Structures
1.
Amino acid sequence: MLVAAATLVVTACTTQIDDATVGAGVGTITTTTPAATARPAGTSPTTSTSVAPEPEPADLPQVIIGISGTAANRAPSGTALVRYDRATGEQVELVTASDLAALAPVGPLGATETTMAGVSDGEPLITGADLSPDGERIAVTVVWTTQGRTLATLVMVDAIGGSPGQVLSPPMAVEASPVSGGTPTFSHDGSKLATVGATLSIWSLDSGQVTTTDIFTPYGAPSLAWSPDGTSLSWGNHFERTMTPTSSVGRFADPARPSTLTVGDPREGTGLWWGADGELREPAGPARAVDTDATSAWVLGRHGATTEDGGVGYQYFWWPSGGDGSDAAPLAEFPPGFYALSW
């Protein structure tokens, strides 16, 4: 379910950003500069020894979906959707944002007028993508501006079929938040999809119907996540620069009826995930969860930082869903230039 700028591993002088604020483009920034180490005159510099990355488990997902291109408003977004096989190194560009925007007329079956900062005229951007649990479909959200109006659409594309990137269903109008553009997230059984704009919406993929809730999510929902049994949803909140980021949890009285979703008290922090045991967990380290695999066994996490040239860089990590992320290991084998990842 979802990044890296041209420089994936940020070293030397970097500016660290709480990932919960990267999408919102706000937050507290702390600059860290490595201290110089003095050495006695006449001695040679110490040769640094690199630490070998931790071996990845055999069942860690190998196929990832990435968004490449440029970022808007420091939110993960780009101009092309790419499928990458980490085992073979095969990289396939599936479709571009311009291709998908061209298919979407304004209307319920197409695109709806919305708001999102940082979108230039004539520059469609893919702002969210999620791989279905069976690995066959990708839900994609696209935002673009034309004649002073910002439009957004949701499209299903083929991930592995005879025509990868082929559109599988008509584009559907979807809300986009001011900064995130609407992030689609499949339920673990693949029957439903959640998206966020000004409000939270639940799509039934069997009937094609959408239930737009009255749950207010004006800045999008980082770490939008389904519980393994599909009875609950969690999403991050970040409204104002001075507010502490929190996460909300909603539970369906009847999972077959999205309108029965009720929201409990918020929890402090973002980047939460559901373990295979159905427990909602929060990270102990700086990386924030952005996705779990189809079995809810592994978490894909992200940590954001500005690079020396002022761009936005991301590092990706993995850890067991039953842990707290304190043992997160860097994700190996994915190409540079991705602004968003999903597995």
2.
Amino acid sequence: MRLPFMFHKGLYFYASLAFSMLLIGVSTGQPINLRAKSMKSLDFGDHKGQLLTGNVSFEQSGSRVYCDRAEYDPQSETLKGAGNVRIVNTDGATVTGTQINYNNRLQQARVEGNVILKEGSLILKAPWLEYNTQSKIGWYGGGGFIQDKETFLKSRRGRYDPNRKKLFFRGTVILETDDYLIQTDTLVYETNTKTAYFSDYTQINTADEQIILNEGYYKTEQKQGYFTKGFTYVAKNKRILCADTAFLDKENETGIARGRVWLYDSSENWMLYGQKGAYRKQLRYAEMFGDALAINTQNDSLWLRGDSIITEKSTNENFNITRGIGHVKMMQGSTRTTAQRLTHYERDSTIQLRGKPVIWDSLTRMSGDSIDIYLKNNKIRNGSLFPNALIINREKGDYYSQIQGDSVYYALDTQQKIELGMGIPQRQKHLLHQRRYCGQCRLLGGLHQYEIQFSTKQNRPGPFLRQTPWNPVSDRPNSRRKEAIGTLYLGR
């Protein structure tokens, strides 16, 4: 996830310069030294002032002010200038307009009429600019426009407070560069910490991404952001992230989302839900916490729930690994799965279940201390259970068959029915040197009787010889209710 650089590195300096250019008086209210081609007395009623025409100018605090004509009232210490108003700073920056009003007693200046500030590559345009020479606070209104090379900022109002070292932009704020476009109603920039604050609906667009937030801040130097009251991230690669709050660290490529987290990847039809999410791009690692839920809607929908769900890339091979931890539940079609831990390897489509796993559907129930599953086309094809393995399969009606042993291998047909089962007795490993198999595997037949042949020549069991119809267990004579001793293959 990439968050854009919120402010051009010099934008705060230029905006503050726009207001400081109006510094034409000092806090002591010192007299103004006026110059002009023509000066004459001007009647203000009960006192006299000055009317100046032709190249009017005066200098205060390092800035020289020019205009075509001006009226100065020494009693109120106010000056009104008009015509080709121009303020020139010693560093070459200029402000132009059509009128200027300056109150030396209040230490406040105002330039009006198509105001333009220029300094190097920066251009600021506004209907008017005001500046207080004592508080050093400046502001503009009526719709302002700032351009610095390829960076553009528009807002209805703007203000700079050097005491708090903050720039305020309000009213349909638009910040545009070659890389991104920010649209908001309120934007505050803290010049000493280089931090941008948002307190209203904000939308950030890049060529590949869109970010929507309501409140938060972004540190432009550290490239870190924290956003609250709703956060949405939309990528053109068809990924969407929503959360109540989010923290992003672009430099370290990490992120944390909290509160009603929702992640959607339409390219792979995955949706993730949880109360907290974490992301580390360098480690190619993402985790969802808090009753996490993952849903894949491709073909047969797959649901995966757990205390946490982790996705990561293999460290030495480029394939995905998905893990479910704590109270894991999985559902696909009519198949249900429970376990304490689940690991899915995308490379060979295998699933490992640990911690008293159980798999069941309308025909089959499988359990064991551990279960491995191989998938094909998102359906179970074969796998193994170990130890304490148990498979119960519904044959027809109320008839069932059962395989139990220390380890069981199974295969399912296209109808998800068992077509091959192999049970290995518990003590098999200890008796291989006797070239025979021993232990206990039980087959309780439903409709069929399974006869088993044992082989002692090659350390492997022989196949069963035949299947014959058999009545339900409850109808069998006691002499025919028996357990098969040895390794058992079950097939149709």
